[in-house]
Amino acid sequence: MAAHLVASTISLRVNGQTRSLTLDHRTTLLDALREHLDLTGSKKGCDHGQCGACTVLVEGRRANACLLLAVAQQGREITTIEGLASDGELHPVQQAFIDHDGLQCGYCTPGQICSAVAVLDEAARGWPSAVAADVADTDVRLDAAEIRERMSGNLCRCGAYVNIVAAVSEAAGGRA
Amino acid sequence: MREFGYARPTDIAEAVALTYADAHARYLGGGTNLVDLMKLGVETPSLLVDVTGLPLGQVEETAGSSLRIGALARNSDIAVDPFVRGRFPLLSEALLSGASGQLRNVATAGGNLLQRTRCAYFTDVSKPCNKREPGAGCAALDGEHHNHAILGASEHCIATHPSDFAVALAALDARLEVQSEEGLREMALTDFYLPVGDSPHEEVALEHGELITAILVPAVPAAARSRYRKVRERASYAFAICSVAVVVTVVDDAIHDVRIALGAMASRPWRARRAEAALAGSTPSAGSFAAAAELELEQASPLRDNAYKVPLVRELVVDSLCELTGVSR
Ligand SMILES: Cc1cc2nc3c(=O)[nH]c(=O)nc-3n(C[C@H](O)[C@H](O)[C@H](O)COP(=O)(O)OP(=O)(O)OC[C@H]3O[C@@H](n4cnc5c(N)ncnc54)[C@H](O)[C@@H]3O)c2cc1C
Ligand code: SF4
Ligand code: FES
Ligand code: FES
Questions:
Q1: How does pLDDT run across A121-137, given as a tens digit for each residue?
Q2: Can you tell me the distance from the alpha carbon of B106 to that of B95, in angstroms, rounded to the nearest whole number?
Q3: Which residues sit with their C-beta closer than 6 Å to ligand 4?
Q4: Any ligand 3 atom below 6 A from CB of A54
Q5: Whole-structure pTM value
Q6: Which mutation among B20, B22, B28, B108 tests ligand 1's pocket best, with the greatest number of atoms within 8 A of CB?
Q7: What would the DSSP string read from start to end of B63-84?
Q8: N or C: which end of chain B has fewer CB within 10 A?
Q9: Whether the predicted interface score ipTM is above 0.95
Q10: Could you tell me which CATH number the domain at A7-83 has?
Q11: What CATH fold (topology level) applies to the domain A92-171?
Q12: End-to-end Cα distance, chain B
């Protein structure tokens, strides 16, 4: 078997800053963030893509950081929960989660919020979801059924779903 | 997880050469299945050849309103593509019914087709599994098999293929374009997935190192109607326990063309060819749909805990056909 290098030096743009890291190839993006960059906001729930607690934005798109290899993210722009507020001002989705009590223990919350930020963007682009009556319809309205479907990749063991839907709904411009 | 090398070629020939050169190399698409299986110790590659830098991400209309999906196109990008939504809504429906927004953003078209079974014994290396370790036996036969196959299985393996996308593609007569060291070749998606027989570890007609470069979907008749329907144990973010993709064209009150593919029923997307043959040329009615479904399901071999799938898939086929042809049940 050919011998391969098992570690690489990569650079990532994390929350607007360039970070250079030498990592074993086995390191996931989630472990790189938490263990190497001390950004512990992104949570490890299942480590298998099944819960959404590790959701971050990669080039503005939501993804499960636990299934991404850090080495494969070379040069990419990563936004975590720590990078959503700007100038001391919470992101509107963060504020909506506070206003609607969209959490109990808070473990799933960073993932929920990152996911919701992306949901608003996807809806603005006219992306359909599985509950669309017609997938060709580009006029997307984030009603409760749409929010539940689009947020289904984020589980909450505390069952704070009712308030999570209310928070996302308000952030989407709807009445809670 | 075992240590491994990593390469990210930008040239297709280079990617293929790297993988041919190392019998334990694997292509890395989005990694949403492969990285998971590496964590579980099911996959132990020596080298990952990351193909996401290859120029194979396009989703495009080709001659005669046909569709070409680059193998590296992300599941989300395929599902939201305007041409796909307008002309192949079946594909959007199937993709959007799978996994989650996060996973679809990362998962590639090629990786989706090559995702491995979710059989719990396959992913648990402490259990006997013929698919993982030929000759070891099959723990699911007498074990937990409520979501295992009722069609085309063998005593060597009863696992199902978990992809929704592949079921829709099977109903659309899709073809795959594959790059080997010698050149490009093409095959029907339904020939790509191999029958189980006594070699459940041989799943697809792909040699080590061959790279899927594109999925080719022929145009559907303008009058065709289609639908992807999926049943699962919770409303979203779950694999199918039963799914049906139907494309049907009715002309002068007769079924001119009908294609039915079943998901979560077999080791591969199952084209219901017997049912299709029975329906060709017939007048749409709930009775003829039920008879056709029954004919297909004569081949079913339900197990101790998955016999519920027989009436479930029958009803879903009948219901989908009724909806699409405007016939009342
Ligand atoms: C929690 C969870 C829920 C899910 N639910 C669903 C669901 O409901 N429905 C569904 O259909 N799927 C579901 N999935 C599976 C998901 O769709 C697949 O993991 C994904 O499509 C795989 O794509 P990928 O690009 O990440 O593949 P990878 O993990 O990168 O690759 C998978 C395999 O394909 C090989 N490969 C990749 N690209 C190529 C290529 N171009 N040529 C040759 N070989 C290649 C790799 O070597 C590997 O063996 C779920 C996954 C998770 C984790
Ligand atoms: S059903 Fe197939 S995959 Fe599951 S344990 Fe048996 S041989 Fe393995
Ligand atoms: S920790 Fe990534 S999905 Fe659960
Ligand atoms: S608030 Fe506790 S898991 Fe969601």
A1: 999 999 999 999 999 99
A2: 13
A3: A 103-109, 156-158, 160
A4: yes
A5: 0.98
A6: B108
A7: GGGEEEEETT-BHHHHHT-HHH
A8: C
A9: yes
A10: 3.10.20.30
A11: DNA polymerase; domain 1 (1.10.150)
A12: 53
